[in-house]
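Deliverable D5.2: sample structural annotation.
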Amino acid sequence: MEAKQDFCVNAIVFQTINELVKNDTPPSLNDIEIKAEEAFNFLLTTFPNIFTEEHKTKVINKIIAMLKKEFVVVVFGETVGSISNEIKYEKISSEEIAEASYYWEKYKTYKLRTRTPSFITAQSRDVDRILKMMPSPIKNVSFQSFGMVIGDVQAGKTGNYSVLINKAADIGYKLIIVLTGMTENLRSQTQKRLDEDFVGATSEAGKQSRMFVGVGTVGPHEPSRVPTCITDQSNDFKKRSVANFILESQNSPVVIVTKKNSSILSNILNFLSGQTHGEKIQDTIRVPTLIIDDESDNASVDTAKEDEDPKAINKKIRLLVNMCNQVSYVAYTATPYANIFIDPDLEKQDSESGVTLVDLYPKDFIVALKAPSNYCGGDFFYSDDPDIKYADKVKVLIEDAGEENAFPLKHTKKDIPTILPKSLKKAIFEFFLAIAIKSIRRKKGRIPLYDKHDSMLINVSRFTDYQNETHKLIDDFVQSSVLNKLYTNPEDESESSIWQQLKLTYLEHYQVVIEDKVSWKNIKQELVSLIQENPNFVEIVAIHSQSKDELLYGSEPKRYIAIGGFKLSRGLTLEGLTISYFYRKSIMYDTLMQMARWFGYRDGFKDLVRLYTTKECASWYDHINKATIELKEYLVVMERQKKEPSEFGIKVRSTEEALIVTSLNKMRSTEELDVGLDFSGKCVETFYVDPRPERALYNIEKGKEFVSSLRSKFQRIHKEQQGAGFIAKDISGFAVNQFLRRLNIHNANVWARGQTLISFINDNIDGMYGKWDIALLDVKGNEGFDFCEGVKVGVAKRSTSFQRDLQLPNPRCKEDNKYKLPLGDNGRVSSAGMEATGLFKEDCENFGISKKVDGRTHINDSAARQFRAERRMNPLLVLQIVDIRINDKAKVSDRKSHVSDLINVQPRHLVVYLSLPGIGNANVKKYRVNRNFVKDWFGELEQDD
């Protein structure tokens, strides 16, 4: 009953808002109270089985609260658009980035020893995007910025923030705090990486080391620029390392690399409080600070309820941010689901210190990095598309692991495995073969010099005792049944010998797919050579919190078979990972994705890579991969439209299967909704455009690029066909969708909101929306516009008097409302007959699409759409260039004058029309959405007391 009441209240508030925003003056509090009572009376008479007089006070108060929240900005006279136009700080400029390059140049010189110039350029370009959204430590006296960078698993996030640290230090950030994962292994690994990429020497806590590494081998840092490390590879933050240490006296950057550990974070807070100009934790340090939160979805997100204190680690990170006078907090993750579901409006007062703590929602920027083309990610491992190389070879489905209770998916802490399944033994054989083939290729220079190691991953349980027993079984099998026999009997290829088993594995599974012709004889010779050089050349290690085993990759080649669970799932890199055996069951997107250590760069040996897993797990990963791609594409659109993350209505595709997006306590601020619209049998168009010149010119440029890419396909519309201009037939639906994604389409066009139409087209791209016709409308006698060479059309004219000025329902983004230009007064921009473009006139006459009335031809667009559907013709995308002018009779109020001024500067716009025939697959899917998304679509949701 309560849910039904909420639904009805939201609906009536949505309707009331639409009525109130039509008024020229904002509603007073009295107006809101009157409207709230009218709304309740309507609910009472319309839904007597849901509402009674007993509900009156509670419901009216709820409606008043929702309306006040919507109109409070207007009531207090704040500027419309103040949210997204608010200047919180001056951002880092291109000039600052270009002028300060000491650390960056050393890093670049060092990396060019092993990386290509194009790789370094791409890194620099990605980091510059991030920097330009961050506050300048030179131009701002104080600031507090929250951002997030989304990468891919094993795609180089550490490399990205290494570059960010170098460039940020050049620009003036002095204190650099890197929050790693939860384990000392990961912290130490990160410290080692930063020693090489930034410090230039093996770190010694509180001292300046002379053991040069990494950038230090290019040449030692200038004395005044040597970074000071308060932590080192062996030691996390310790009080004795900072005795008598004064931050503000340091000229060079200060580096802290620490675990997300509550007691260690407390020590750092106490240290920093001693660096302030007061004695209270509320006092701030006056040093420009960059906080990098690696694996930010792990431990950093507050899982407490709204009325509880923040959880310990989240609270201390927030206190850390609060203690800095100039601070940029940048979260890094490959699984951003928990981060984007933080309530952007929620603040909590710490009961201990009394400080009001802003949560870690990335309210200032979200950047989604694009992995390079040589990255092996979701498509490489999970796609069944035959056009994707290796798609049908890389996956090996495990079907025998549950037999004889080898590795049952469901097991307890007390269970132990007793045998190895045949599939795992085959995977180990393939690993030995891959080692030999890679060794041969390295000698031929086919694998990059920096890739000198080989690894195999085995993940079959989260329990450490189970992992230990698995380690024993594998160690015994590899040492006794494989290495020993290979070493002692190199000539034995009898039917049951290990050499014969390896040979059969090669002939059956590898020979048919590898790219170079390697004979069994050469592979055997290489293996014999490697074994004679070191009989134990493969090490079996258990990587978990209670194990002393480590992955120690150095200058000499290492070959590991690593057995693990959680510890292998967070940040640790398995160099040269070739074979992965994954027999686990988890229900959470982020947990599953973090376990995907097999993602990464496999230059020179993609054809050798194998992922052993279950059919069910592969389908889950495929679903998560698609949901993640959709999310990142949406974030890119938001970035392009220059919207602030605090305004994002974010949705992540959910599922009816046994998967959830992230842990339930990280989704307290979310709802699960069936989201989507069915656009089949409809026409949509850009009735509203953004008048800002840079937006208009951007869309025009994208239109020209799209048409230019299809130039050879465009033909003049024949005189026997309807319409005038050009038409291209049978264009890929993928190309159409990519074009629509790139456009900045105003959110007032409801079909464009949340990429709903794009998702709808994508869901039907294998059916009737796989091929499209593209038309360019020509208006004869008007000024011409060149889409590209040989494709020129006349520009259409449109006028507006601002009469058609409907407001967005409960707009979160005031910027959208401020810059909203209706291209006409009748609710439609396209001319009658647009959907008949390209149809033969004879067909139009014979099937009632066109009729002559008083000597003039009238065309029925809906009939044309139906005609296309019945004959299974392509959907139609029409592009037109229009010039907009203000009707001479228009009354341009002060509220609209800024739009009219922009029209005078840039009157020209690209508009699109889409005729979507037939009955497609209605895009109604389950999504996990944040509160902004709910507000955008349904209005403010109030919680009952």
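Annotation notes: The chain is about 35% helix and 15% strand. The first strand starts at residue 143 and ends at 150.
The annotation will be released with the project's public dataset once the embargo ends.
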